[in-house]
Write a structure and sequence with these properties.
- It contains six helices and two strands.
- It has helices spanning 3-32, 40-64, 70-93, 113-117, 121-138, 141-170; strands at residues 36-38, 101-103.
- The longest helix is centred in the N-terminal third of the chain and has 30 residues, at 3-32.
- The N and C termini lie far apart (47 Å).
Length: 176
């Protein structure tokens, strides 16, 4: 495996850890102020799948001695796009973004154009391009074929639950 790929995977993983720290800080604040966590089991499964996917792609890149080529460059571009979008989503949600499914007390719907245009930008503009980009970067065909369908199913369940919470709790609280 070329060192460009190794550096990129480690850098993205480190960046993900920094975003996780933001999530943990926000989670504590939400719970301390009367918020509620939903979908605990689903969140744990998504977290495990995310880590397993990263490790699997990294291992597959090592085993296949992946070279940094056009496919890797496109994958890296998707990852950069996904991290920018994650930063944007975190900024727009200002203190309530978490990797878990949490609802702050008196949680209002954020009616920013991004949330109106892309119903779940954290999933469709961050997670999906990140995972596809990582698989492309690492030339991780088997990781993508085996793990991504499972991830997609669990993410679909998460989106269903989030849609229910939006409809029943958040939207009735009004707009931000």
């Amino acid at each position: 495996m070329e060192y460009y790929i190794w550096i990129a995977v480690v850098a993205v993983f480190a960046l993900r850890i920094l975003f996780l720290k933001i999530s943990i800080r926000n989670e504590r604040s939400i719970l301390q102020n009367g918020g509620i966590e939903y979908g605990v089991k689903n969140s744990k499964i998504l977290t495990i799948l995310h880590i397993v996917f990263y490790l699997s792609c990294f291992i597959e890149a090592i085993v296949t001695k992946a070279k940094f080529d056009t496919q890797s460059a496109i994958g890296a571009g998707l990852i950069v796009f996904s991290m920018i979008m994650l930063y944007v989503v975190i900024s727009l949600l200002d203190g309530i973004w978490t990797v878990k499914l949490m609802v702050a007390k008196e949680h209002k719907f954020n009616n920013h154009w991004l949330f109106k245009t892309v119903k779940h930008p954290n999933y469709f503009l961050n997670i999906v391009p990140e995972l596809i980009g990582l698989a492309m970067l690492c030339h991780a065909f088997y990781s993508a074929v085996i793990i991504l369908p499972i991830y997609a199913f669990i993410l679909y369940r998460r989106i269903e639950e989030e849609n229910r919470i939006l409809k029943e709790i958040i939207i009735p609280n009004g707009n931000k």
